[in-house]
Each structure stands twice: as C-alpha cells, then as structure tokens.
C-alpha cells in the first residue's frame, strides 16, 4: 500500500529538500550542482535564491563574482529560459534538453526570418568575435553582426543568442560594466570525460529532481525539465533499476508522488517561519499540478497582490507577494498579503526582510501593502 503524507508533512519535506530550512553548502557551485539547474531569469533575485541555501550566507557581490569567475554559469537550458548551472553539468544538460527547446523555438526563428543559412552565418560571426578569451555583451555582439550586414532587432537577436547557447557555442561570461556578457562555451565548460548517453543523462536528471525537490509528481518533472511525460517515466524506470531502494511512491492528497529517503524526518523550524523567495525560485517553479500544495485554501490573489512578482512563504505556504525598491543606501521590501498577519508573523517577516538587506549590503525596511498586519 502506498504511504500517505498530509499537506503539512509534504510541505515540510519540500522545504528541507529545497534547503530553505536547512542550508547545505558553502560554495555557490556546490548549491547549483546539488540542484542541477536553478532558474535565473531575474539575475539579482536568482543570486538571492542561491544565497538562501548556503550555510555561510554570502552577499550579492560575492555571488556575482562567482558568476564572473565561472564557478556557476548562466544559460538557456531545460525550458527556454535562463538557469544557473555548474560548469561540469552544462554540457550534458544541453545535450539532453536543447533539442526540445529548439523545437519550441523553430516557428519563432522562421517568423523572424532566421533561416538556417542566416543563422549559421550569425553564429559563426559570434564565435569569431569571442575567440581568444574575449567576452562580449549582447549589445556588442549585435553591433558586430550589424557591421557584418546582419542587422537584427531585439526579438531576432534574442533568438540568435539562444540558439548559440543551445548549440553549445556560447555561455555566460564576466560582467562588463552593468551588462552580462557571453564567452565561448568550450572556454568556460570542461570537456566531457565520456560520450553522451541519453538514457543515463535522463535517469540522472529524474533522480536528482526527485531527491532535491520531492515529493514530486512525474508531471512536475516533465513541466520543469521541458521533456515529455514519457521521458519522465523512462528516466524513473532506469533510476529505479540503478538504485532499487532509493525512490518511494507516496500519496499527497490527490497527487501520486515520488520521494527519496522517506525515513528522513523533516520538521518545521520554530513557527512562524517566513521565507522571502523569488518568483522563479525552484520551490515555486519545480511543481506544475502539485503547486497547489503551497497555496492556502483561501488563495484569491488581489490586483495589488498580482503586481508583485515574488513570494512570501509562512511555514512553506504562500502568504503574500513581495518586491524590493532598491536605492543606493537602503532597500524597501514591499509586501502584499493574502490575509492579515499576526504580530508574530509580522515580526518574522521583518526579520526575513533584514536578512535580505544583509544580502544586498544595505539596511532594509518593510512597506506593507494590502491587508495590514496586526
């Protein structure tokens, strides 16, 4: 008979799996490698998501330096969006998932006049411009292509750069002023020790997803990875053959889930525990059908609530949204709540905002929007 978890038990388990209640590594590369890929669409907030899971609580500047140094890399992988990846993981992840993303992108390439001849010429020019350890921003590469007779608008240039990433020509480089840059893929990513094995790569990705985000459904994996539900089932079958006793089926309400090491006790910290997670945090983006487990029964977002991108969690459950207003010497954390907060929840929220301020290196204050805490 399949074991059952309550919603509260599943949330506690997920918060531990995501290392939000139990930071697990001292290096940014260690955290990113642990999760295999972490969505990094909003760059600054993605650095915050990384810091939240680290035992030494680094600040934003030190994490940005780690990206510049290539300790962690940023590229389009899995779905057609940005992710942080560890250098040693980038090659096989792209070999596994890029074909699906390219199929999604194909009609957009055609719509923007990017036939294979034009695209190949642009990619060759980009590689030449980056050769010899040069790092260039997207704007600089766009100017270089224009000088060579290929004038691309914003959408077309974005598609060209994504194709350069998906085909393992380029990956993130150092920061140039305030702009991100690109470098040659092979100059930032180590060569593979063995030939790519799709079956092994797929089973590895499924196994890591379950271990670092469980309990999860296979549909959660398919949406998160951009792969198919058939891929999810095949990957789990191979993972179970490789490690027969590692993964266990578990029911959570109406969801058929999988998790690893079910004997591990995952308890909540002293309540209330408030976590300010970014809108694309892996705790938010790793689940599709089972995302409802983190939403309270009374979940009814208001217009003010929907204006803010990021998520306020109380004991792992969505309780509001937030964003920052960053100035030179301080930061205001604006919070819209789904309900009236208690005094203890308000105090815990203030503490969470101060942790965020320390990450940015400036004092933080909370501005309450919507339901006023009491």
What count of domains describes the coordinates?
A: 3
Widest β-sheet, arrangement of strands: 10-11-12-13-14
* Major sheet description: 5 strands, mixed
Q: Which H/E pattern describes the elements?
A: EHHEHHEEHHEHHEEHHHHEEEHHEEEHE
Q: Which residue ranges are poorly predicted, with pLDDT under 50 across at least 5 consecutive positions?
A: none
Average pLDDT score: 94
**Helix/sheet category:** alpha+beta
Q: What Rg do the Cα atoms give?
A: 21 Å
Strand coverage percent: 15-25%
Number of beta strands: 14
Bin the helical content: 40-55%
Distance between the termini: 45 Å
Number of helices: 15
Silhouette: globular
Kindly describe this structure:
- The protein has helices at residues 7-17, 28-35, 43-51, 60-69, 87-111, 116-130, 138-147, 154-166, 185-188, 198-213, 218-225, 229-242, 282-285, 303-307, 343-360, and strands at residues 3-5, 38-39, 73-76, 82-85, 136-137, 170-172, 181-184, 247-252, 255-260, 274-277, 310-314, 317-326, 331-337, 364-370.
- It is of the alpha+beta class.
- It folds into three domains: 3-12 and 196-260, Arc Repressor Mutant, subunit A, CATH 1.10.10.10; 17-188, no CATH class; 295-370, no CATH class.
- Strands 10-11-12-13-14 form a five-stranded mixed β-sheet.
- Helix 5 crosses helix 10 (198-213), helix 6 packs across helix 8 (154-166) and helix 11 packs across helix 12.
- It is globular.
- The N and C termini lie far apart (45 Å).
